[in-house]
Amino acid sequence: MPVGPIGSAASIAFTPLTTLPETATTTGANPTSSTGFGDVVIGALDNLSATQQTADKLATQAATGQLADVHDYTIAATEASLATELTMAVRNKAVEAFTSIMNMPL
Amino acid sequence: MATFPVLATMANGLSVFRTWMDAIGDNLANLNTVRRTDESAFQARYIVAEAVNYGSAATPGVGSGSRVASVELGSREGQLAYEPDHPLADANGMVRRPDIDMATQMTQLIQAQRGYQANLAVVDRARDAYLAALQIGK
Q1: Phi then psi for A30, rounded to 5 degrees?
Q2: Contact: B131, A86; criterion CB under 8 Å
Q3: Which terminus of chain B is more exposed, N or C, with fewer CB under 10 A?
Q4: Has residue A53 been placed in a domain?
């Protein structure tokens, strides 16, 4: 039994949710969209990622014998660990708040 | 870097003290570097430190540590010593030794080591303080 190509599936156009930003602004849950909680978290995650990449780079240098200063690596590692703990603390608080709202008896 | 500024500051300070220890090590290693009298003596290395980002006089801010501004060289003359048996001695039996005092260098080495440790102590205290701050509300 011949199986036809699935080229016809390409004709199904993807309809982007162009109305999403409008609904987001009309709900009013996010009065200043530029400094919302999500942006703060994303910024913190970017910062964390950059810190960890710096520590990783220095760890590689230590392993390959190109590390100029020992304290450069240890301080970068300390910074990465502190940033991780800070991000985790923020996340835990956010999840905690969400959970307490979800557990609200209606 | 901006989240924990004191750590970056201490990294700068540690680099200065480490460079100072490097320079002292170089000076001590060349304590016996003898030259001919018509050459310049081995010149001791001296580290010049400077403050980083201390703002202006109107708005003084907490800076971000120190850095090595330059490396200055010691005396070219050195010390002339009478060593007629030395292979580099001139017709008068003189050679040129570096003008480096071992006692001074050793004293400075202790200063550099203690300074390095002091900077590391700040890193430890800052880390403890930040971790304590993360415990708020737990």
Answers
A1: -130, 80
A2: no
A3: C
A4: yes
Distance from CA of A21 to the nearest CA of B (A): 32
Per the CB < 8 A criterion, the answer to whether A82 and B131 are in contact is: yes
Express each pLDDT in A15-49 by its tens digit: 554 444 444 444 444 455 567 888 888 888 888 89
Facing A82 at nearest CB: one of B10, B130, B137: B130
The phi, psi pair for B90, rounded to 5°, reads -85, -170
Residue A9 belongs to a domain? no
As for how many domains chain A has, the answer is 1
Q: How far apart are the first and last CA of chain B?
A: 26
CB contacts of B11 in chain A (<8 Å) are: 69, 71-72, 75
Q: Which residue segment(s) compose the domain that A47 sits in?
A: 36-106
* Contacts B131 to A, Cβ<8 Å: 82, 85
pTM of the predicted model, to two decimals? Answer: 0.73
Question: Is A31 part of any domain?
Answer: no
What ipTM does the predicted assembly reach? 0.74
